[in-house]
Amino acid sequence: MHNNRINYSQCWEDARVLLEGLGAAKQGPALSVTSGGDNTLALLLGGATRVVSIDINPAQNYLLELKYAAASALEHPEYLAFLGVTSSNRRLELYNSVRPHLPVTSAEWWSHRLPLIENGAIHCGRFELFNRRFRRHVLPFIHSQRTIREFLAQTPLEAQQSFYHTQWDSWRWRFLFRVVCSRIVLERFARQPGIFSQTKKEKIGELYLRRAEDHFLRIPLADNHFMHYLLTGSYDAQMPEYFSGEGHAYLRTRGKKGLSVVNADIQTYLSGTPDNTFSAYNLSDIFEPLSPSESAHLWREIVRSAKSGARVVVWSNLVDRTSPKDLRACVYEDDLSAVLRAKDRVFFYEGVHVYTICK
Ligand SMILES: C[S@@+](CC[C@H](N)C(=O)[O-])C[C@H]1O[C@@H](n2cnc3c(N)ncnc32)[C@H](O)[C@@H]1O
Questions:
Q1: How far is 91 from 102, CA to CA, in rounded Å?
Q2: Quick one: which atom of ligand 1 is closest to the CA of 12?
């Protein structure tokens, strides 16, 4: 899984869902899976006093450090330009200002990969590159740029639903989407190695097509930066919070106080963590490649390392890894989990799950 390249240059878990799921627990010490770094930044913006951001793949942590260093070093317009939100041919020049704000290992890593900086670091993940190929080589055979723009601009939701049925849901859309989201294609080109090792689900393309349809009929697109990015390659007016003017100003003035970045397997890290350490856990969909026994072990370590009242937010995609039944301290928040699943602005997950740890 750790291949020293960036698999995700953005987080594909909805930060709003994460923060709402964590509730008041998000103010306390948090353990956050880094991935694209966005949700670790969201936790800091949400008021977390201390965040340990962990990833088994150091490249993901270097990306988080680059995003933080860019916020510290650059004014807002340059920050957006440098990371790839807006277009720019000055990124390598801006990197000279960012570099002194990076830890040494991170600076070395990026300095050997300047083309990733030049193209805008938020676009460099394996998943985002796959998405770009889909937009460039497949989507034009399905819908014109105009149709895509019109679909994304439909309001209210009833207009979006009607557009979906009358203009979007063509046989080409269904056929090509199924192919692009088939297991063989995703495994080979899009997701991190090993991500499908625990699922026996078949017809994954069909499953994702159903999830996409359900999403288009329930979740407004107009303010959904995830769908804007997937269909156009840019966020348009809507952006993750850390890119807003306020988000940038906050990260800049706050500095990195309270943020620790850890390159490790979460199981190994937690086994060395004292009891009652964390109040909040952002676990992305970390259980997806774990076997049932590895998952059960991780759940026990989460409970042991959690303060009483801690919250855990975790997404599931193709594998069900709920907490072991005998682990009574893990209380599943049914209603909140269902509410958040209904709001999630990312279509590809099966569910979002919130637990309170009651010791
Ligand atoms: C869980 S992955 C999933 C991302 C995306 N949501 C998806 O489904 O394709 C997010 C991050 O977790 C990291 N990761 C996976 N397993 C890990 C582990 N056991 N310990 C620490 N980080 C891990 C990966 O390197 C990746 O950067």
A1: 16
A2: 6
Would the pTM of this model clear 0.90, i.e. be above it?
A: yes
What's the pLDDT tens digit per position in 308-357?
999 999 999 888 878 888 999 999 999 999 999 999 999 989 999 999 99
DSSP state, 106? Answer: H
Ligand 1 centroid from CA 313, angstroms:
14
With beta carbons less than 8 A apart as the criterion, state whether 289 and 1 touch: yes
Q: Using only the alpha carbons of the chain, give its radius of gyration.
A: 20
Looking at this protein, which amino acid is placed at residue 161? Q
Beta bridge partners of 263: 55
Q: For the segment 110-119, what is each residue's pLDDT rounded down to a tens digit?
A: 999 999 999 9
Which tokens hold the place of 36? 């694209």
Largest CA distance in the chain: 57
Q: How many alpha carbons fall within 13 Å on the CB side of residue 278?
A: 26
Work out the burial of residue 334: count CB atoms within 10 Å of its CB; fewer than 13 is exposed, 13-18 middle, 19 or more buried.
exposed
- CA pair distance 39, 41, nearest whole angstrom: 5
Q: Return the ligand 1 atom nearest residue 7 CA.
A: 27
